[in-house]
Design a protein that fits this description.
The complex is a heterodimer of chains A (about 110) and B (about 120). By secondary structure, chain A is an all-beta fold. In chain A, about 0% of the residues lie in helices and about 50% in strands. Chain A has strands at about 5, 10-15, 20-25, 30-35, 45-50, 55, 65, 75-80, 85-95, 105, 110. With about 120 residues, chain B is mostly beta strands. Chain B has no helices and twelve strands. Chain B has strands at about 5, 10-15, 20, 25, 35-40, 45-50, 60, 65-70, 75-80, 90-95, 105-110, 110-115. Chain B is globular, with a radius of gyration of 14 Å. Classes of the chains: A mainly beta (about 110), B mainly beta (about 120). The interface of A and B includes residues 50 and 107 of A.
Chain lengths: ~110, ~120
């Protein structure tokens, strides 16, 4: 099992550019989420999904889009990058049963200049 | 909305000593889940320990244990026999009851940076 994978690991964007952060899991988990981590603020939820075709907003959704066409993949799109989106992004997944442990990817460090 | 508070931004402990990290939370739910995650410099998020609110017994995992006080909404982490490899950021997190909207997401505290020294 690869667990939760994220690409890329690092990315630098210019203001106004768009990009997609990729996230994939091979554990057949129903739940997937995107968080951002900023200094002194812990991790905050951006968007989440409870299954293919179902997504919802988290605490800080503005400037981000998601879709979930398969159980395995949950990409995060930045439509027009802003310096305020400079952060570390984590994707996570968990099963709908069992221990409810969330499994995290290794993170993507994004810098917007 | 749920909130999680970690009031100790930084702590230091000597190797082999015991340290306790504090966490309080606010919720109107009766059943929920609490977690402690460790984030070493590699930035990987690693689950340390979990606690189900309906269980009165405090969870333990080797050198890690929690003091769960449901009425006080307190969930502290005790690390015994501290090791240099315990140096990391530690996050307390809350998840709501299963099969509800809040079960889809974790609410995190702001973290405690723990330094283990020789």
């Amino acid at each position: 099992n690869a667990g939760v994978t994220q690409t890329p690991k690092f990315q630098v964007l210019k203001t106004g550019q768009s990009m997609t952060l990729q996230c994939a899991q091979d554990m057949n988990h129903e739940y997937m989420s995107w968080y951002r981590q900023d200094p002194g603020m812990g991790l905050r939820l951006i968007h989440y999904s409870v299954g293919a075709g179902i997504t919802d907003q988290g605490e800080v959704p503005n400037g981000y889009n998601v879709s979930r066409s398969t159980t395995e993949d949950f990409p995060l799109r930045l439509l027009s990058a802003a310096p305020s989106q400079t952060s570390v992004y984590f994707c996570a997944s968990r099963s709908s049963t069992g221990t409810y442990e969330q499994y995290f990817g290794p993170g993507t460090r994004l810098t917007v200049t | 909305a749920q909130t999680v508070t970690q009031s100790q931004p930084e702590m230091s402990v000597q190797e082999a000593e015991t340290v306790t990290l504090s966490c309080t939370y606010d919720t109107s739910e009766n059943n929920y889940y609490l977690f402690w995650y460790k984030q070493p410099p590699s930035r990987q998020m690693i689950l340390v320990i979990r606690q189900e609110a309906y269980k009165q017994q405090n969870a333990t995992e080797n050198r890690f244990s929690v003091n769960f006080q449901k009425a006080a909404k307190s969930f502290s982490l005790k690390i015994s026999d501290s090791q240099l490899g315990d140096t990391a950021m530690y996050f307390c997190a809350f998840m709501g009851p299963a099969r509800t909207g809040t079960a889809s997401k974790l609410t995190f505290g702001t973290g405690t940076r723990l330094q283990v020294t020789l």
